[in-house]
Design goal:
With 366 residues, the chain is an alpha/beta fold. Helix content is 42%, strand content 8%.
């Protein structure tokens, strides 16, 4: 096999970020050589400050370029689109409130969100957050969670996922096995949670169980160290967490996707040889490299792709494990709808804006 073919092997496990509203030469090279199975969009990919029809046309051209250079008819077009502070898109796409404010309207909001995501050609939303707002000092989750107890979070997160599903958008439960109790931000450092497996069963896992019962197709890992469960590596690299708990105990059969590998909690680890093989053996199928946090450089992306190829070549990465992961990705990709970018009418957007206002005025008890 050529070097490019080896790198493309990793591309089938890669969701990649691109640098702006148009493709740079580096973007074109990466899309052509790696042929990632998916892309993740951020605010930098939308022409902010322009009229709706103008920024939407620029974005439509960006998607067309991505397809052209990746040479894929079917791809995962993905977006972090939770509401609250996690919204990347310009107006008039609706900025719904934080998940904590949605409560009984979770399903309705998700259906409206799905309509808007489809208009952007997006087929996977990195939502809902299945964490629990159990630590008021949490700097990264907080009101992004749907509830302050396992029961309230599980009920609302289930409704939100079903709303996405009904509108034709694939949802993803995150951040397994639970990020709600941390007091550190995994974008900046590796959080540590001294919880036992029993602690997780009694609280953190309950919303994830609710989504697994509804056959959520993707679950995203948390870059968190749980030393009482696995003292050596964070959940993204832990067989004891991803395989023993998620796969075997909870029976999850879908795709396990890493949180962004550019996040400081794990970014240095993934510069070390054999790390990607360890993550795949632990249970990760798909990897996000956003190029949005530390650097827009492709150097890290190519390093991880080469590590993947080298690990296969030297036998440290089991080909049967890779084949099983690829099969899960192929099965999901085969049923993932491919949407055309299109404008939404004013009445639809007005209706969604009124729904956002209604959520904002809802009383929430802690």
């Amino acid at each position: 096999m050529s070097v490019t073919q080896h790198l493309q092997g990793f591309g089938h496990h890669l969701v990649l970020g691109v640098s702006g509203t148009t493709l740079s030469d580096d973007d074109k090279r990466a899309l052509s050589e790696l042929q990632p199975v998916g892309v993740i969009f951020f605010a930098k990919n939308f022409l902010d400050g322009a009229a709706y029809e103008i920024w939407l046309q620029t974005y439509r051209e960006l998607i067309d370029q991505i397809r052209q250079y990746a040479e894929r008819d079917s791809m995962f077009f993905t977006l972090d689109h939770e509401g609250g502070r996690v919204v990347r898109t310009p107006l008039p796409i609706t900025r719904f409130p934080h998940a904590l404010l949605l409560q009984s309207r979770s399903r309705q909001v998700a259906k409206a969100t799905g309509v808007e995501l489809k208009s952007l050609g997006v087929n996977i939303s990195w939502a809902p957050v299945a964490d629990i707002y159990s630590n008021p000092q949490n700097p990264v989750i907080g009101p992004r969670a749907f509830g302050t107890t396992p029961e309230t979070a599980a009920k609302a997160v289930r409704e939100y996922y079903l709303g996405l599903q009904e509108s034709g958008i694939l949802g993803c439960a995150k951040h397994f096995p639970g990020h709600g109790d941390t007091s550190q931000d995994s974008h900046l450092e590796l959080p540590v949670l001294h919880l036992t497996t029993e602690d997780l069963q009694n609280r953190e896992l309950i919303p994830f169980k609710a989504l697994i019962e509804e056959q959520v197709p993707l679950i995203m890992t948390a870059h968190i160290l749980f030393p009482k469960i696995d003292p050596d590596v964070p959940a993204t690299l832990s067989t004891g967490i991803l395989n023993a708990i998620l796969r075997e105990e909870l029976g999850f059969q879908g795709i396990v996707v890493s949180d962004d590998l550019d996040m400081k909690a794990v970014s240095d680890m993934f510069t070390q040889e054999g790390t990607v093989a360890r993550a795949i053996h632990a249970g990760c199928d798909l990897f996000i490299v956003s190029r949005n946090i530390n650097s827009s450089s492709l150097e890290r992306t190519y390093h991880i792709a080469k590590d993947f190829a080298d690990s296969l070549s030297n036998g440290s990465l089991d080909e049967s494990v890779v084949a099983a992961a690829r099969n899960r990705i192929d099965q999901l990709l085969a049923v993932t709808p491919q949407y055309l970018v299109h404008t939404l009418d004013r009445d639809t957007l007005k209706e969604h804006a009124e729904l956002a206002i209604a959520c904002s005025f809802q009383e929430v008890g802690f």
